[in-house]
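Kindly inspect this today.
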Amino acid sequence: MEENEILTRFLRSNLNLHPTALQELKRRQAEAAFIEELISRVERSGARPAVITPEYLSSLKEAPKSIVVERPRKRTLAEEYPEEVRFLGDKDITKRSFSEGNIEGFVKYFNDRYERLARVLRERNHLRDAITIERAKGSRGSVKVVGIVTDTRKSQKGNTILELEDPTGIIPVVLLSNNQELQKAASEIMKDGVIGVEGNMGREGDILLAKEVFLPDLPVGREPRRCEVPLAVAMLSDLHIGSQHFLDRSFLKFLRWLGGDLGTKRQLELAGRVKYLVIAGDLVEGVGIYPGQEDDLVIKDIFQQYQRAADLLATLPEHVEIVIVPGNHDATRLGEPQPAIPEEFAPALYASDRIHMVGNPSAFELHGVEALVYHGTSLLDVTSTVPGTSMENPQGAMEVLLRARHLAPTYGGKTQLVPEGLDYLTIDRVPDIFHTGHIHTVGVSKYKGVTLVNSGTFQSETEYQRKQGLRPTPSKVPVLDLSNHNITIMNFLEA
């Protein structure tokens, strides 16, 4: 047996094999029958060691090298269908980054954002006749404008004052405090977002009194695309492999379930329909992410962290296609959009032809169903500024991003933005699935035909999270049926 095959078989039995023991079995050219007998003897011994060492193996009598005839296994539904993954490259910055980080780059970046989202707004019947801010200043009566919010504040009288800018000028927009609808809209208008406003010009022509505010938002009545067969996608994020808080036993249970070795009849049927696994960032814990992190690491080398991740993912059935998006703990730049994890850090992941390494964000189709995947750093900006949103219910913050049609509207918050000239974070197309992570809390909902999934974590609560008020819901995996968008949440938390 090959090294990878040996490791896979031990992991599926929830047994950790020491690297030297693995090398010993490889050196002895152990056959499948020999490996199966060893595992059987370990399980019959009654005392399962934490790690299978060479010494432990030598304590077991050698198994006879007899031929083991395995019972034929019924093929699962996911095995019956070849993969259909189509990547939509306009969201992936990988190999397209040319940013110099200068003022000119930021000007191009925000101009592109304005043009993209202004186009979305002007497609709405109510804003087709919007005029420039320059023309509005010379008008009287009712006008409609589209602009980017450069500032927002409260007046002494409690009115909300927005500063709205387009390529022709800047104008203050007043949302009166006694208009509840306007104040509700104002509560989730984020700085640097693009909005439409209908209102009346003031007497001096230098201020706009808003009557109605329009967010880019999603269209009403749109039906999501569906797969013709009930294939499924499992959605993960924030594994943090390498951390002492990584829940390895829970994750091994997840791997065994997908491998068909664990679960009830109904759970195994669901596992047999999982064709895709999408990981929305923070595959590993990383190094140098925060002060004192080294004390929290069991794998202190970033290369070894990715190797361990590759070893674990290699145990999944061959028919499962894997898409990996980076997060803020991964070995790529912190500023968004993030290129894919470089091959030099994770050669074993790149060596697999069923693992797809992409950037953050990324958009792709799975059997015709479009997914938008974003790690989710900006969710913290939303929950800290928009009333009614919280880290305990991340789907609420995700809805705010969809209404803004942007993954990270605010510059200068917790989310670092890189001026690439083009704004890769705008939500130009409407996805069928919106998948995020980062918050470490499972949350699912639906919004105007889009299924929202924040996929939680496989890391237990850390001291840093306690200080930040994060309360994780670990080891829960949302599994989405691509034919009807129904979600089952599998719980692999060890008691």
In short: The chain is about 25% helix and 20% strand. Residues 103-122 form the longest helix (20 residues). The radius of gyration is 26 Å.
